[in-house]
Amino acid sequence: MSFDDATETDPSQAYLAAIGRALYALASLEWLVIEVITRLDPTEDIPALAVGTTHAIYTKFRAESERSEIAQEVKTALIKIADGYSALPPLRNAIAHAR
Question: Residue 39 belongs to what H/E stretch?
Answer without folding.
Answer: helix 13-40
